[in-house]
Structure formats: structure tokens, C-alpha cells
């Protein structure tokens, strides 16, 4: 039976979602804040997440960005009252699979959750591959030609982000945010240093430089 994580601080809505998901034949784990959500993700294998953005200990978008940086590929449906276009775009850019506005119909939420899980089924294993290179984003392990790669956490996060967007140029700002977070104070050449280190461990032409813009892994 698929298991769903509900992250919602409003107790009445959280319990209502639990009942609806249970009636729809899902196992449900429900939590009230971002800290509990992280703990649940670390100990359970979820098929989907319903995430409220207004959490008491951390903004839901920050939580979402964080778990995506950490390699969690579980489908996430955002549940929020923020109906401005910019808010919806920010949510999707942060890694959400869909966006449901409050107030909402339970039938619509369940339908969107099912669709998000169907789309994400191909990523359920947490595996990213490119030729002879393979990453397991859940176990933070990497191999090249079957041999384990010794990568730092930052190097792994950078390489995983490039592979997720294979064939697309990612800007320096995008990569910095992915690896370090949006508010980190980092050296201006930090991404370049990590790319240099990765090139010493992988074929030098795997990561292409787009001068003045960023990097890419060609499709």
C-alpha cells in the first residue's frame, strides 16, 4: 500500500487529509512542521508528499528546496493559500510536482497526487545515469564504469543536479543555490572549484563549460 506524507500545521485540515487518504487506500504519516517532515523522510519510503507552505518552523518552499538538494525525488504536491502567479511559479521552480490552492476539493487533490506519483514513478529508485556514470541519490553513492567514486557531499549534489537537467545549461546562480542554498555566504568561485575536482575524477569532457553562463552535461 503506497505511503503518503502530509505536512500541514492546521490540525483539523491535517486530520481531514489523513481520513481522506486512508479512505483512498493510502497509508498516511502526518506531521505538523518541517523538522518532523525531515525526520519522517529519513525513516520512511514515501510514494508522495502533500506539503503546506505555511509551517511554524520553516517556510515550506525552503523545506522543499532543501529536500530536493539532498536528493529526494519523491513527488510533492504543494497545498497553500498563496494564489499569486509568482508564488505558484516559485513553488514549481523549487521542485514541486503540482500546486493545489486552498480551499480545495479532496477529489481534485487526490487526482493531482495520483498524477504526480504516476509521473514520478520512473524516478522511484533514486537512480541517475549517464553513460558509464551512475548515481544513487537516496544512498549518496556514485559509480563510474562500475567502480565507486569518492565524492564529497557538495560534489555529489552538484553532479546530481547537472544529471537531472541533462542537456540543459545551468547557471552559476542555479548551481550555487542547488548546492549551498539560497542564503549561503560562499566563495565566488566555489562551483568552479567543485567542477575542477569532478573533472579529475571523471572524463574531463563530461561537464561542459558555457563561458560566462554556467555548466551542462550534454544529452
List strands and helices in order, with pairings.
Layout: E1 3-7, H1 11-23, E2 27-31, H2 34-43, E3 48-52, H3 60-69, E4 76-80, H4 85-93, E5 98-101, H5 106-120, E6 127-130, E7 133-136, E8 141-144, E9 147-148, H6 153-164, E10 170-171, H7 172-180, H8 190-201, E11 208-210, E12 214-216
Parallel strand pairs: 1-2, 1-3, 3-4, 4-5
Antiparallel strand pairs: 6-7, 7-8, 8-9, 10-12, 11-12
Helix pairs in contact: 6-7, 6-8
Write the CATH homologous superfamily of the largest domain: Response regulator
- Assembly state here? single chain
Quick one: biggest sheet? Answer: 5 strands, parallel
The CATH architecture of the largest domain comes to 3-Layer(aba) Sandwich
Order of helices and strands: EHEHEHEHEHEEEEHEHHEE
- What's the total helix number? 8
How much is the average pLDDT? Answer: 86
Content of β-strand: 15-25%
CATH class designation of the largest domain: Alpha Beta
**Helical percentage:** 40-55%
For the biggest β-sheet, the strand order reads 2-1-3-4-5
Q: Could you say which overall geometry the principal axes of the C-alpha atoms support? A: elongated
- Flag low-confidence runs: none
Strands, count: 12
CATH topology of the largest domain: Rossmann fold
- How many structural domains are formed by the residues? 2
- State the end-to-end distance: 36 Å
Radius of gyration, Cα only, in angstroms?
Answer: 18 Å
How does the helix and strand content classify structurally?
A: alpha/beta
Amino acid at each position: 500500500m503506497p505511503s503518503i506524507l502530509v505536512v500541514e500545521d492546521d490540525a483539523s485540515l491535517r486530520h481531514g487529509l489523513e481520513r481522506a487518504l486512508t479512505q483512498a487506500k493510502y497509508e498516511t504519516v502526518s506531521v505538523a512542521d518541517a523538522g518532523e517532515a525531515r525526520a519522517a523522510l529519513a525513516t520512511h519510503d514515501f510514494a508522495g508528499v502533500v506539503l503546506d507552505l505555511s509551517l511554524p518552523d520553516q517556510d515550506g518552499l525552503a523545506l522543499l528546496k532543501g529536500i530536493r538538494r539532498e536528493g529526494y525525488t519523491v513527488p510533492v504536491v504543494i497545498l497553500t493559500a498563496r494564489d499569486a502567479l509568482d508564488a505558484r511559479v516559485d513553488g514549481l521552480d523549487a521542485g514541486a510536482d503540482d500546486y493545489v490552492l486552498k480551499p480545495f476539493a479532496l477529489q481534485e487533490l487526490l487526482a493531482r497526487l495520483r498524477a504526480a506519483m504516476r509521473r514520478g514513478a520512473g524516478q522511484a529508485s533514486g537512480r541517475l545515469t549517464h553513460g558509464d556514470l551512475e548515481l544513487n541519490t537516496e544512498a549518496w553513492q556514485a559509480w563510474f564504469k562500475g567502480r565507486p567514486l569518492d565524492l564529497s557531499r557538495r560534489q555529489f549534489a552538484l553532479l546530481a543536479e547537472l544529471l537531472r537537467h541533462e542537456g540543459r545549461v545551468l547557471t552559476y546562480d542555479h548551481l550555487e543555490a542547488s548546492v549551498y542554498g539560497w542564503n549561503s555566504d560562499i566563495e565566488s568561485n566555489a562551483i568552479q572549484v567543485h567542477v575542477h575536482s569532478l573533472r579529475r575524477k571523471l572524463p574531463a569532457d563530461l561537464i561542459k563549460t558555457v563561458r560566462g553562463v554556467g555548466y551542462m552535461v550534454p544529452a
